[in-house]
Amino acid sequence: MLPPSRQDYVSISLAGAGAGSYNNSKQWRRQSCWRKWKQLSRLQRSLILCVLVLLFICGIASYPTVTEHIRGNALCAAHPKHSSLSVSLKLNTTGGACLFLVFRNWRGAVIDTEQATKGTKDMENKDEPPANPEAKPSEESEAVREAFRHAWRGYKDFAWGHDELRPISKSYSEWFGLGLTLIDALDTMWIMGLKEEFEEAKAWVASELSFNRNVDVNLFESTIRILGGLLSTYHLTGDTLFLDKAKDIGSRLMPAFNTPSKIPYSDVNIGKGTAHPPRWTSDSTVAEVTSIQLEFRELSRLTQEPQYQASVAEIMQQVHKLDGKLDGLVPMFINTNSGQFTHQGIYTLGARADSYYEYLLKQWIQGGRKEDQLLEDYLQAMEGVKKNMLQKSSPNGLTFVGELSHGQFSPKMDHLVCFLPGTLALGAHFGLPADHMELAKELMETCYQMYVQMETGLSPEIVHFNMHQGSVRDIEVKLADRHNLLRPETVESLFYLYRFTKDHKYRQWGWEVLQNFNKYTKVSSGGFTSINNVRDPEYPSPRDKMESFFLGETLKYLYLLFSDEPDLISLDHYVFNTEAHPLPIWPASA
Q1: Which of 217, 228, 328, 330 qualifies as a cystine partner to 380, CB 3.0-4.6 A?
Q2: Does the predicted TM-score (pTM) go above 0.90?
Q3: CB count, 10 Å around CB of 194?
Q4: Which helix (H) or strand (E) holds 87?
Q5: At what angle do helices 505-520 and 434-452 cross, to 10 degrees?
Q6: Which of 461, 474, 547, 579 is catalytic?
Q7: Is 295 a catalytic residue?
Q8: 122 belongs to the catalytic site
Q9: Is 149 helix (H, G, I), strand (E, B) or coil?
Q10: Other CB atoms closer than 10 Å to residue 52's CB: what's the count?
Q11: Active site includes 354?
Q12: What spatial distance separates the first Cα and last Cα of the chain, rounded to whole Å?
């Protein structure tokens, strides 16, 4: 029998490779097999050996995941929804053969199959954190994607189209009835390359999202979450669906600015076109009226309709001129009738004032660093922080930002204040004083300690620092302050610090936070829940609520922290609003 001719494509049938009849003895069988082997061409023998080696390697690689495979999780289908499997076989005339197996994700990058599988395996146990505390960045990024998919699965199954998921009761809660979680998560899905989830959310926006509703919405929250989310998604995708929706909600929010002082009301009925303050006061919070500027400025730039930017610029002009500041620090409330600060003498970088300082810097960056008044107000405020609110704890000397009440210092610090390390680092990146970066690093350490000193490894909402000599621990937490709402501020600052310093400890700290979110807040049926007690690892007491910002901010910043793509939302081209929605920095000609 003549051997088959050499060729670049091969069809092998071992069953028909030989002919004839042989003795049944073992010796004749061995001789028969050897004779058949010799009859094969060199190319055929090479191909068979290559396949056998490949099967051997696959067997070793898949050994730890045999049980998962039995349950149906095939090794080569780790991410069936988000990847396409491409197999290619190359043969050459010298008889060599190579088999290439690759996964290609939505954005076109080639992902190593072993790492892709490892990332999923780490998250397989729904109630435990990823097993490897020293995970590689690619594994970390995939673990964040898996956390997002788990959160999204719960929202899709139990709260689709509603504002927020209640994962324990497998239900939902409404605030405005506008699908807040879905809109907040749009750009996160795009950035993570979650094509299937993004497309189903986009279909809901196109067919179901309507702002023609008789409902009161909070001006600040709807601006940063809905308007900001739609503008960001438009810029990332180029899809005018999102710009059209942004124009719609933006125009419906404008009645809030029809006040005697031009300081906007807190609430707007987007169906009736009316606005009003809260029932109990005519005040608005300073943070809310001064943290809508990035979004309305961008809406004017895109639509060429100046009224949006003019309205929010008027607010900044008035606040700039007001009395009642302390070294650039502002009170928490401002009256919509008089346009004056109220409840004066109380200063904080926490709730009701925090994002005022953030948006001073970010508006300056957004506008191409031309608006000197914004920069001056920001620099003055940071000097005010250093002069009036910065202290050290005992016994370990942690730098923290406290509060002032009528001249009395309080060592109270909200978790919200942990936005400040990232903001300081961002300013230093754009040429502001170098000591801003040094302070950012010190405060970043403090925010990390707010996590690591808790029994669950998760920060409480509010802490108090010990300042007395002889203190045993730096941080104390009152019973009413022990809850964790899945907030993003610490991982937000970790993202900025890592981007600018490349110090890998910030990634490690973020990885620990993600592990503890998975361990103490993950709900097996889908979603994550805020908890009541970060000091009780045995029963942290779930609150049965997943805030929209967990998908819109917390997981987005974690993903960007672990990404090795330096141009993935470059901080030289984008500025994040206070809900983590990236908006473009305006070109020099703007």
Answers
A1: 328
A2: no
A3: 21
A4: strand 83-91
A5: 30
A6: 461
A7: no
A8: no
A9: helix
A10: 10
A11: yes
A12: 80
Chain centroid to CA 293: how far?
A: 22
- In Å, what is the CA distance from 328 to each residue of 351, 452, 498? 17, 33, 29
Half-sphere exposure of 296 (CA within 13 A, CB side): 28
CA distance 265 to 336: 6
Does 93 count as an annotated binding residue?
no
**Per-residue confidence in pLDDT tens, the chain, 590 aa:** 433 333 333 333 333 334 333 344 444 445 555 555 555 666 666 677 767 777 766 565 544 433 333 333 333 333 333 333 333 333 333 333 333 333 333 333 222 323 333 333 333 333 333 333 344 447 999 999 999 999 999 999 999 999 999 999 999 999 999 999 999 999 999 999 999 999 999 999 999 999 999 999 999 999 999 999 999 999 999 999 999 999 999 999 999 999 999 999 999 999 999 999 999 999 999 999 999 999 999 999 999 999 999 999 999 999 999 999 999 999 999 999 999 999 999 999 999 999 999 999 999 999 999 999 999 999 999 999 999 999 999 999 999 999 999 999 999 999 999 999 999 999 999 999 999 999 999 999 999 999 999 999 999 999 999 999 889 999 999 999 999 999 999 999 999 999 999 999 999 999 999 999 999 999 999 999 999 999 999 999 999 999 999 999 999 999 999 999 988 999 999 999 999 999 999 998 65
Torsion sign over Cα 575, 579, 416, 332: positive
Edge-to-edge strands, sheet with 346-347: 346-347, 403-405, 408-410
Distance CA 83, CA 145 (A): 13
Beta bridge partners of 401: 390
Point out the catalytic residue in the list 184, 267, 489, 547. Answer: 489
Q: Is 390 exposed, middle or buried (0-12, 13-18, 19+ CB in 10 A)?
A: middle
Question: In the annotation, is 142 catalytic?
Answer: no
How far, in Å, are 58, 70, 79 from residue 66 at the CA level?
A: 12, 6, 17
Q: What gap in Å lies between CA 266 and CA 272, rounded to an integer?
A: 15
Say which of 197, 295, 354, 547 is annotated catalytic.
354
Output the six-digit token pair for 123. Answer: 């998250």
Strands 574-576 and 83-91: unpaired
Of the residues 221, 248, 376, 481, only one is catalytic, namely 221
Cα atoms in the 13 Å half-sphere on the side-chain side of 376: 8
Whether 499 and 137 have beta carbons less than 8 Å apart is answered as no
Q: At CB < 8 A and 24+ separation, what contacts does 98-101 make?
A: 98/50, 99/50, 99/51, 99/54, 101/76
- Residues 193, 107 contacting (CB under 8 angstroms): yes
Give the integer Cα–Cα distance in Å for 281 and 159: 33
Q: Locate all alpha helices (DSSP H) within 433-534, ordered by sequence.
A: 434-452, 489-501, 505-520
